[in-house]
């Protein structure tokens, strides 16, 4: 019998706020010293009272609005009761029946170009737990320590409907959600730092059936690559269990990335196991419509809309668009460069193809400029190249006033020291030579010294001309116009 996967995912995201969820302790994910940012409130000492973090509430609502969700006027915090060593209170303040966000959806494309529409069940706000560290003492005994710096940090949990049908879809959903969260500025959502954590609920059912199969939760997944691998493994494991005539057990499983497989951790808890009840120390939240309106006003252009605009307005290919969508700062810089190029494009009239000029700028930004950024780890905001100077360089390249080889030298100089491209070209004598009269002597010398290559070209090996152009470029110290060289070489041989 053929089965189909039914997958829903839960995404936990640590919010980027100044303080923790219910106290004034700093929310500092980079703090290396354990148990520094703690107080009686986030440790749950008797007699302390939690006060909700307004900034965290606003950020969850902002995510809900970006997901086209319902923001109920009434919301409530609840106690989720369970014991774990890194949970200082013995319970977690969370939300159950009345979350901040209900419903919504996220749309994205898969690698094959097909579009997916995944519904969101809810987005709620809770506090994070502490962090356990396991090791070995000098005596060889196992040790466990707990750092409560993370305990009480605002944690947003998003739960999807079971609309996902493959491991690839789950990964793509997570990546698009991470992009959305970063665009909204609510979190850095760095999975390697634990700022975003994914859990998958996986089940199989006979293809075409309406009832769901037995659900298994997979936890401890710290990258989107492993999200895809863990789900793919779990789908195959459950298929093998069903094929052998056995039943899938409802349980929680971990992901072992070194072995590439899931492993059983415990039987899956249900909502009744957590004994939810309204948090007695925090009154319900009644959300003012004017306040919600002010939050909605913060919504900026989101990845989906930006993706469509960059494709339609700039006529860029899909790969280039995705590079810009994944780096909002680079995309903003690109648009500043295009704005600076606009006057030049208009002044040149028919001599410049707008789309071709814009694509030229995009290519230099996404290849050469990005390569230099990676070498120096420099953010776009700190680049010494102004959009105006970058645009000027692009115009000179387009008009063949400088060769591509020389352009790379100029760009490198601008990146490291700043400066006007025209002055750099003049100082370094990098202007491109396009005069046939001045280049004819170089061509004659190259043809005379490479008679074997000329002979190959005459026999029909037309690609041999590239070697001749390369030799001529070297003789001109990279200043010759390759297109003019090609014309002169072809005419001279003929």
Automatic annotation (TrEMBL):
GO MF, one annotated term: ATP binding
Residues annotated as domain Asn/Gln amidotransferase: 332-493
SUPFAM superfamilies according to UniProt: GatB/YqeY motif, Glutamine synthetase/guanido kinase
Pfam families per the UniProt record, alphabetical: GatB_N (PF02934), GatB_Yqey (PF02637)
Gene Ontology biological-process annotations: translation
InterPro entries documented for this protein: Asn/Gln-tRNA_amidoTrfase_suB/E, Asn/Gln-tRNA_Trfase_suB/E_cat, Asn/Gln_amidotransferase, Asn/Gln_tRNA_amidoTrase-B-like, GatB, GatB_C_1, GatB_Yqey_C_2, Gln-tRNA_amidoTrfase_suB_CS
Entry annotated with the keyword Transcription regulation: no
EC category: ligase
E.C. number(s) listed in UniProt: 6.3.5.-
Catalyzed reactions per annotation: L-glutamyl-tRNA(Gln) + L-glutamine + ATP + H2O = L-glutaminyl-tRNA(Gln) + L-glutamate + ADP + phosphate + H(+); L-aspartyl-tRNA(Asn) + L-glutamine + ATP + H2O = L-asparaginyl-tRNA(Asn) + L-glutamate + ADP + phosphate + 2 H(+)
Source organism, top-level taxon: Bacteria
Role of this protein: Allows the formation of correctly charged Asn-tRNA(Asn) or Gln-tRNA(Gln) through the transamidation of misacylated Asp-tRNA(Asn) or Glu-tRNA(Gln) in organisms which lack either or both of asparaginyl-tRNA or glutaminyl-tRNA synthetases. The reaction takes place in the presence of glutamine and ATP through an activated phospho-Asp-tRNA(Asn) or phospho-Glu-tRNA(Gln).
Record's subunit section: Heterotrimer of A, B and C subunits.
Family: Belongs to the GatB/GatE family. GatB subfamily.
Name listed for the protein in its UniProt record: Aspartyl/glutamyl-tRNA(Asn/Gln) amidotransferase subunit B
Organism: Candidatus Sungiibacteriota bacterium
Gene name, Swiss-Prot/TrEMBL: gatB
């Amino acid at each position: 019998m053929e089965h189909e996967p039914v997958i829903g995912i839960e995404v936990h995201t640590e919010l980027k706020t100044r303080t923790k969820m219910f106290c004034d302790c700093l929310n500092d994910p980079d703090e290396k010293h354990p148990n520094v940012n703690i107080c009686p409130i986030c440790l749950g000492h008797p007699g302390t009272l939690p006060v909700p973090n307004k900034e965290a509430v606003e950020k969850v609502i902002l995510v809900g609005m970006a997901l086209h969700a319902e923001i109920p006027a009434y919301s409530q915090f609840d106690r989720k009761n369970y014991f774990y060593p890194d949970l200082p209170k013995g319970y977690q303040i969370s939300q159950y029946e009345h979350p901040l966000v209900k419903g919504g959806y996220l749309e994205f494309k898969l690698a094959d170009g097909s579009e997916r529409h995944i519904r969101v069940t809810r987005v709620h706000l809770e506090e994070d737990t502490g962090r356990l560290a396991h090791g070995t003492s000098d005596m060889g005994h196992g040790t466990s320590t707990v750092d409560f710096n993370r305990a009480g940090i605002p944690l947003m949990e998003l739960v999807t409907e079971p609309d996902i049908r493959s491991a690839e879809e789950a990964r793509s959903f997570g990546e698009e959600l991470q992009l959305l969260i970063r665009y909204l500025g609510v979190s850095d959502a760095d999975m390697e730092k634990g700022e975003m954590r994914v859990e998958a609920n996986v089940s199989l059912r006979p293809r075409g059936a309406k009832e769901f199969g037995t659900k298994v939760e997979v936890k401890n997944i710290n990258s989107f690559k492993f999200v895809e691998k863990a789900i793919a493994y779990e789908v195959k494991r459950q298929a093998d269990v069903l094929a052998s005539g056995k039943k899938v057990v409802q349980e929680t499983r971990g992901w072992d990335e070194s072995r590439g497989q899931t492993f059983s951790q415990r039987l899956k808890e249900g909502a009744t196991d957590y004994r939810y009840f309204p948090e007695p120390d925090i009154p319900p939240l009644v959300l003012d419509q004017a306040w919600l309106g002010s939050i909605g006003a913060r919504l900026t252009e989101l990845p989906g809309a930006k993706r469509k605009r960059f494709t339609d307005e700039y006529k860029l290919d899909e790969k280039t668009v995705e590079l810009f969508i994944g780096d909002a700062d680079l995309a903003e810089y690109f648009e500043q460069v295009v704005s600076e190029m606009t006057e030049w494009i208009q002044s040149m009239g028919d001599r410049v193809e707008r789309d071709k000029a814009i694509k030229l700028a995009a290519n230099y930004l996404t290849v050469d400029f990005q390569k230099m950024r990676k070498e120096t780890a420099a953010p776009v905001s700190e680049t010494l190249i102004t959009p105006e100077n970058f645009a000027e360089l692009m115009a000179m390249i387009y008009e063949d006033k400088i060769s591509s080889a020389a352009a790379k030298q100029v760009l490198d100089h601008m990146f490291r020291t700043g400066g006007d491209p025209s002055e750099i070209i003049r100082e370094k004598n990098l202007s491109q030579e396009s005069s046939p009269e001045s280049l004819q002597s170089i061509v004659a010398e190259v043809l005379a010294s490479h008679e074997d290559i000329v002979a190959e070209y005459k026999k029909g090996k037309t690609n041999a001309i590239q070697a001749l152009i390369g030799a001529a470029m070297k003789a001109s110290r990279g200043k010759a116009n390759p297109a003019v060289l090609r014309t002169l070489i072809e005419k001279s041989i003929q």
